[in-house]
Write a structure and sequence with these properties.
Shape: globular
InterPro entries: Rev_trsase/Diguanyl_cyclase
Largest sheet: 6 strands, mixed
Number of strands: 19
Strand order of the largest sheet: 13-14-8-17-18-19
Structural class: alpha+beta
Radius of gyration: 26 Å
Strand content: 15-25%
């Protein structure tokens, strides 16, 4: 019997609070609820002898049981464990029998417990069962059981500070509403998730920052657990960015690898090979999270007698870092969801575009030049190249600025960035950045359909508005489809790099940030931008400006109205700290505690570990 489990409501569950600790802890808890290798924190004790686990990450579980009775016992115990530890998550379960021994007559009762559909007729073998499992899970979603809906008690006057439900315990580590003598009252699952989050935070802060170098000084470094410590400048309008990075075409990559790497004579060999490749991709995501943290750390200046800062070129002020001597300096970047095919990072909004560019450069690095087989990019590249018959197979070509190029099997990604004020719900920022990522991926697919010979590229989109996902998407569509487009988003990876170099580089001719400041900001915002937004011809205004200044108007080369409007929108938020110069993208990634894949962090949204 093949059993598939998919957890519903992960996004809402993880991002229901306003604090980083709540999101990290809930994401870690989701990972533990599908981790069959961890006997202490995971669900290894629920897996019976003779069970073969094919997938156990990202809020999803796939396993092969010796018979229907063992599958039913596991489902009963697992859903009970889930109810006890995270009642706001809903399990969707599907049982797929295979072989004559699993025959079930018409009208047999449901095998899957809450959220499971009625038991279907068996299929020929385990590979056939795995092939139909996704469809069975979709069918199970349409037969959700109301019995799984949590029924909290009422009549309790204390209210949870996070969920708004009845409070069950007190978190003595946090004050309620800025009253230091009143502790937060929370539900038991919030307290549990915070404990898990602290444990995960300690482990990964120490691992990711071990031996990290800084630009000047050698302070102790740490990752922040509060939004206020993400480089916020008190007394000013401070904004953070939620950055979501998702691998493009993961289903196609895994499906193709399963067919190529599996042995037709060995049932389930394709699924096992697929699981190994999923581990490589998880290692890639963990490696990217690690290198983003270390690249930001490499730009920190901690000089004696001065507050530690991250300087850089651009209109934005240097990022002042949170530091209470003799404690550690907290760098303004915090991975929340790491692994699977997802990476979600919180950072100071001034670093968001620079971080996205560094991430794309790191993924595009030449695996042959890196050379280290323990680097996750090299490991993934060689695994896929071997399945496709060598480096000349179905890899993608990356063109370098010097005109050269190389082939890599490291997949492309979609990147979504959402900028929001400090204090806004994390759930809104995540929904917006995920929507931007989804729109970027759709743009990539549309380009491929329009030109099948076009190179496979990354895709990037962002928004600085936070008035709801639907309104932001409608505004983006309206701006793209206008007679004179008012935005250039989404951008390909090459287009994104060209946009930053042309419009926001401090050294590019005509850049909005040339000479170190936005010297034409007043004119741009008050005169040129309204004309471009209305679709009017900017020629007369440019001529007038040239007469007033006594020379040609300095604007970026080959500028377009849409791209210029995009640049004006982010020019006050852009800081280039020189991440690539501080930590060269081709440098092999330092190995984590678990070798090439690094530590095994937790995992929500959409197949991600945290």
């Amino acid at each position: 019997m093949v059993v598939g489990v998919d957890l519903r409501g992960i996004q809402a569950y993880v991002y229901s609070g306003r604090r980083i600790l709540d999101a990290v802890g809930r994401a870690a808890l989701v990972a533990e609820l599908t981790d069959t290798s961890d006997a202490e924190h995971g669900i290894a004790d629920l897996v019976p002898p003779g069970c073969v686990v094919l997938r156990d990450a990202g809020g999803a579980l796939t396993a092969v049981f010796p018979d229907a009775a063992a599958a039913r016992r596991f489902t009963a115990r697992y859903t009970r464990r889930l109810r006890d530890r995270a009642g706001d998550l809903t399990p969707v379960v599907a049982h797929v029998p295979y072989g004559a021994a699993e025959a079930a007559g018409p009208g047999a009762p449901a095998d899957g417990g809450p959220g499971a559909a009625a038991a279907p007729a068996p299929v020929a073998g385990v590979d056939a069962a795995l092939a139909v499992l996704p469809q069975r899970l979709r069918e199970a979603r349409r037969h959700m059981s109301a019995l799984h809906t949590p029924a909290h008690g009422y009549g309790i006057t204390a209210v949870c500070s996070v969920s708004g439900g009845p409070a069950e315990t007190v978190d003595s580590s946090r004050a309620q509403d800025d009253h230091p003598d009143v502790h937060e009252r929370v539900t038991a699952d919030v307290a549990r998730a915070r404990g898990i989050g602290r444990r995960w935070h300690r482990a990964h802060s120490a691992d990711w920052l071990a031996g990290a170098a800084t630009a000047t000084g050698a302070p102790a470094l740490a990752l922040p657990m509060e939004v206020d410590r993400l480089g916020r400048d008190h007394g000013e309008v401070s904004r953070i960015a939620v950055v979501h990075i998702d691998v493009n075409g993961l289903g196609i990559i895994l499906g193709s690898y399963r067919e190529r790497a599996g042995d037709p004579r060995v049932p389930g060999s394709g699924a096992m090979a697929q699981r190994l490749l999923s581990g490589r991709i998880a290692g890639l995501t963990e490696g990217l999270a690690r290198v983003l943290v270390r690249a930001v750390a490499a730009t920190v200046r901690a000089e004696p007698g001065r507050a530690p800062v991250i300087p850089g070129a651009g209109a934005a002020r240097p990022v002042t870092l949170h530091h209470v001597p003799p404690g550690p300096v907290r760098i303004p970047v915090r991975p929340i969801v790491v692994a699977g095919d997802d990476l979600t990072v919180l950072c100071d909004a001034r670093l968001a575009l620079s971080l996205a560019r560094y991430a794309l450069d790191w993924l595009d690095a030449d695996p042959e030049r890196i050379g280290d087989p323990h680097d996750p990019r090299v490991a993934l590249h060689r695994a896929l190249a071997g399945a496709h018959g060598g480096p000349a197979g179905a890899g993608r070509t990356v063109r370098r600025p010097d005109g050269g190029g190389h082939t890599t099997f490291v997949p492309t990604v979609g990147v979504g960035i959402a900028v929001q004020p400090v204090g806004a719900p994390l759930s809104l920022g995540y929904d917006l950045c995920e929507a931007m990522c989804r729109r970027a991926k759709e743009h990539r697919v549309a380009l491929a359909e329009a030109d099948p010979g076009a190179p496979d590229e990354h895709a990037v989109a962002w928004t600085t508005r936070f008035d709801g996902v639907d309104r932001v998407l409608r505004r983006l569509d309206g701006a793209r489809l206008a007679s004179v487009p008012r935005t250039g988003l989404p951008l390909t990876g090459t287009g994104f790099a060209r946009f930053l170099d042309r419009y926001l580089s401090a050294s590019a001719p005509g850049s909005l940030l040339a000479e170190g400041d936005a010297r034409r900001r007043s004119w741009l915002v008050s005169s040129l931008v309204p004309l471009l937004e209305s679709g009017a011809d900017p020629g007369p205004e440019l001529a007038r400006r040239a007469r007033v200044t006594g020379g040609p108007v300095g604007l970026p080369r080959e500028w377009t109205p849409g791209a210029l409007l995009d640049a004006v929108e982010v020019m006050d938020l852009y800081l280039d700290p020189g991440l690539a110069a501080a930590l060269e993208p081709h440098r092999p990634r330092p190995r984590g505690r678990a070798g090439s894949g690094g530590p095994h962090p937790p995992a929500p949204p959409g197949g991600a570990r945290t």
